[in-house]
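User: I'm writing a tutorial on reading structure tokens. Could you give me a worked example: one chain, its sequence, then its tokens, then a sentence or two explaining what the tokens reveal?
Assistant: Sure. Here is the example chain.
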Amino acid sequence: MFVGEWQAAYPAAKSYAVLGLRAKRPDLKWDLILDDTPTPEWSNEIDQVVVGGNRITTEVVFFHRASRTAIFTDLIQHFEPGWFKGWRAIVAKLDFLTAIRPTVPRKFRMTFRDREGARRAVQRIMAWPTAAVLTAHGALIRNDGQAAIAHAFDWLLGGKTSRWSERLDGCFPGIPSILGMSGPSRWLFPIGKALHRDRVVSSTPPMIAMPAVILTDAQSLPKEPVPATA
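And here are its predicted structure tokens:
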């Protein structure tokens, strides 16, 4: 959102995005589409993995080698109890946003159409010697980063929650993909987006000196430009 304003303010900056944003927002300038290969500008310092195969989002997860920090946008989230009020608190609980530990929201779990591809991507992420985890929606995880990521993706990597999901799919083939668009997530996703409206959810300082505009997930921008408000 506001990428157009960033590009106007810093016309010399390069804009990077995930696959799909160029078609979604052709009115914006995209210099490069991100994939699993780090660009030369940061390949000596940062690794990256694309987690795709999801009907809602495609996300690029980064790893800063020097600090051993994995950087997520939306795939891992965590809000403190009491952050949401009223009906938003109910929806947030259903979406695992206020779980005890940071985890993958329910809406994303339910909308992976290529679980095997997503599993391979997460296994690559797990191979990083991660110490800390930085997310756009939650506090910085300073220690035991690998364990935190393993917990968040336990349902996908073969843990207890993953086995239950596979049993469901074995008994009722196609149920996960059916639920992805016609089940609860069909209403959970738009309602869930309303949870974040007009809220600053990151506890980390903004990186205002970045020489590039980088969008790491495909749902970051609305399909139409957002009109300026006073």
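What the tokens reveal: The chain has a mean pLDDT of 79. The longest strand covers residues 69-77.
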